[in-house]
UniProtKB/TrEMBL annotation:
Belongs to the major facilitator superfamily. Sugar transporter (TC 2.A.1.1) family. It is a multi-pass membrane protein. It comes from Gossypium darwinii. This is Major facilitator superfamily (MFS) profile domain-containing protein. The keyword Transmembrane helix applies. One of its GO terms (molecular function) is carbohydrate:proton symporter activity. Its main location: membrane.
Amino acid sequence: MQASSHLVRGNFGIEISKRRVFPCFGEVRQRSLTLNRNFCIRSGSTCSGLRSGDVSMGAGLVRAKNGIETAVRSLVKSRSIKAQASGGDIEDLTPINPQAKSSGAVLPFVGVACLGAMLFGYHLGVVNGALEYLSKDLGIAENTVMQGWIVSTLLAGATVGSFTGGTLADKFGRTRTFQLDAIPLIIGAFLTATAQTVQTMIIGRFLAGIGIGISSAIVPLYISEISPTEIRGALGSINQLFICIGILAALVAGLPLAGNPLWWRTMFGIAIVPAILLAVGMAFSPESPRWLFQQGKIPEAEKAIRTLYGKERVAEIMYELRTAGQGSTEQEAGWFDLFSSRYWKVVSVGAALFLFQQLAGINAVVYYSTAVFRSAGIASDVAASALVGASNVIGSAIASSLMDRQGRKSLLMTSFSGMAASMLLLSLSFTWKVLAPYSGTLAVVGTVLYVLSFSLGAGPVPALLLPEIFASRIRAKAVALSLGTHWISNFVIGLYFLSVVNKFGISSVYLGFAGVCAVAVLYIAGNVVETKGRSLEEIELALNPTT
């Protein structure tokens, strides 16, 4: 059956064109309105500007307007977004302007920002292979307490950095904050590479932690604010992909250790190079147009939009920014504003997602992966780590391709459901006698499935979703607060995890993780909104209708 089209023309120069695709697809691909008189209808709202000579035609225009509004509402209904508002109401919000073709001009700037994500993963992973060798070199081979401090100091610094990042991003802008972030990253990497004492190593790790904490806050923030709406999900999930690449890079960097015990210093020193590239790259990257608009820097915002999307989209995006109107009507939010009745509901969602992410057991699975693989006959620690890392990278790549098609909420629910099933499998493989002959194989399968499930949603989505659901005036600080929750829970879990395992057993702990994943699915179903295909301004208007 061929596609059909027809044109309806009113008496006042109003055209409605509709092009229908094959009926079996059950949707209208393209709908457009052209209003040639001085009034317009957009997403069910009306603005009018009749000239004095048209007053006698007012009654006819009102009747025509009402008829067209009815038609428009039915046509765009399938494209409306239903979002849970802060007052508990459901708002319908349709696109303010049609999206132009995605511009590849943003990709180099996203790539530069992702150097911060790669350093995030690299600093997390580099100590795993190097700890044994640096402990011997620094004379703490028998001191597990000091080894623990070298590992955990990074997390403490990251907690400080995540809270600092939001304030810096609001005060100095996103690109300048990246450049400031390079300072602790470079100094921290230099100190750890040249450390002759444990104290110097700990200071270097703490500074590197501050750097990756700031990165964890501003990388997803910057990417979400510069990415075109139609590919924002794919570009946002690249953040998680580069974290995984950083972890794998740390694994590869550790391969020469067996033949050269002093190679650990080079491993830490390598991190200086991407930190310098990050600082230099951000000198040539455009500032976030949304931050510039919020600061009242309109010409600079328009210039950034031209750089990112092309001059043909300047008017469209500036209109959306003015519609959201946050920068011109309200002062920058303070930390206490995040806990006000106006914002707390959406802020609590962000904090809860990162809390579920950590309580779901990802660090425990990675920590025990080596022992699990050995039980299945895989004796090589490198092979075990490589399998986990490869699963993470593959899952993140798949998530990137699905993010703008399946949506954030559905990926989150699918991810936590898969993690719950994998955790249950891991728990049963340790306890059910009937599964004893296959316990090693089942444990490996459960571990790989868990990591794949995590990387499909629970890993990449929270960092992508948070900058989308937070209003512009609280976005940087709210992202920082949520990531602070991430780092604090990460630190606490790492501190007490072994004690809990020794008391209750790994099988019971895995069963508890499965329960957390199940609760996460229920929480997401009731509290998380879908944001795919919507600009940040549209989402903000839906979630904060009083702003």
